[in-house]
Amino acid sequence: MEEAKYLRIKDGVIVDHIDSRKALDVLEILGITPESENPIIVLMNVKSTKMGKKGIIKLENIKLDPKKVAAKIKKIAPKATVNLIKDYEVIKKIKV
């Protein structure tokens, strides 16, 4: 699938397993706005075997501390996972 390459990020942070209705709230809590110069991918209503539907946020070329992200979003996304990405690979994973 050609468009799938646009969904991958080389370096950055991915927040996964967000309640789909809370994805935009997570962006707001993290202070990420559309004015950012870096790519922001927000997926909502993604099929999930564990959650039914989930949200995923991918932030490319943004350096965030995964532990700080987890602490900030814990109340609204308690099932979330924060993944630090380097060269397209998950190098650190933190469960909120």
Question: How would you describe what is shown here?
Answer:
The protein has 96 residues and is an alpha+beta fold. The protein has a single domain, classed as 2-Layer Sandwich (Alpha-Beta Plaits). Helix content is 17%, strand content 41%. It is built from two helices and five strands; from the N terminus they run E-H-E-E-H-E-E. It has helices spanning 23-30, 66-73, and strands at 12-19, 40-48, 52-60, 81-86, 89-95. A five-stranded antiparallel sheet has the order 2-3-1-4-5, with helices on one face. A hairpin with a 2-residue loop joins strand 4 and strand 5. It is globular. The N and C termini lie far apart (32 Å). The model has no long low-confidence stretch (mean pLDDT 90).
C-alpha geometry: globular
Estimated radius of gyration:
12 Å
Q: How many domains, in number, for the residues?
A: 1
**Mean residue pLDDT:** 90
Low-confidence stretches: none
Helix tally equals 2
| Secondary-structure element string | EHEEHEE
What is the rounded distance between the termini?
Answer: 32 Å
Task: Let me know the largest β-sheet.
Answer: 5 strands, antiparallel
- According to CATH, the homologous superfamily is Aspartate carbamoyltransferase regulatory subunit, N-terminal domain
Instruction: Supply the CATH architecture.
Output: 2-Layer Sandwich
What multimeric state do the chains show? single chain
Which percent band covers the strand fraction? 35-45%
